[in-house]
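Annotated sample (chain length 297).
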Amino acid sequence: MRDVFQEITDKITAQLEAGVRPWAKPWKDGVAPLALELPHNIAGRPYRGGNVPMLWALAEEAGYRSPCWLTFNQAHERGGHVRKGERGALVFFWKWQEVEDPTTGERRRRAFARAYTVFNLDQVEGVDVPTVQPRELPEFQRIEAADALMAATGARIEYGGDVACFVPSRDLVRLPHPAAFKAPDAFYSTAFHELGHWTGHADRLAREFGKRFGDEAYAFEELVAELTAAFVCASQGFASVVREDHASYIDHWLKVLKHDNRAFTAAAGKAQQAADFILGAGAAEAEEPHEMPALAA
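Output written by the structure step:
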């Protein structure tokens, strides 16, 4: 049986070892930013958490132009078929169940991962999916919308200097002025990265990793913030730009991922919660477990 967590880990690890971060700039050169949005299913619902960078990575590697993914049966139901020889991608969703603690007898809710296989629309023939033109917002409108989103979070942000950081003791985000960045993509990647850290404050998502990641906990938090920025930037029509000062974390991430094949999925789940918080979704807890649960047999 294919192991979804191991496949995700292998794919992400291979790309990190090659110096590529699949969550950064998730579209081809020359393609308008909003032409390749968050990957979504045949009904138009975006994928979440660890599924997003995995599908981004597969699409980038194979050169798929469509953000739409569907199952073998969905293609058949629509009068089409998956081309012979095509290999699907494993994705997963969380299913909540009540279980009984064998020691105390208490019943509690626990999330189990359910995996299934999807194919990109480019791998399918005979399926007619209505084309929905993305909003081709001019850059100044995207900037206005992103600025409004940052303001709506209520975060305290100070501009100036040449350092971007979140200061937990003051509950403060510091950012250089937007004009100090080469392009809006770089500014908003940095801004939403630091706001990703901001969501982890004890007064908000209270994100702690504890002994599970040990000395790698700080680097793991950086991975959560990078993925948060990628998710939010994609929703706002900006590319997620790699920060060169974070290159040193790659070795730490590789160490954690090779030790625990669920670590990347855990980071992506935390990042999805953070992105939901920033975007005001307010429903992160309903779909993303706070800790990595067991994979159901």
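Annotation: Residues 223 and 267 are 7 Å apart (CA to CA).
Annotation: The chain has one domain: 4-287.
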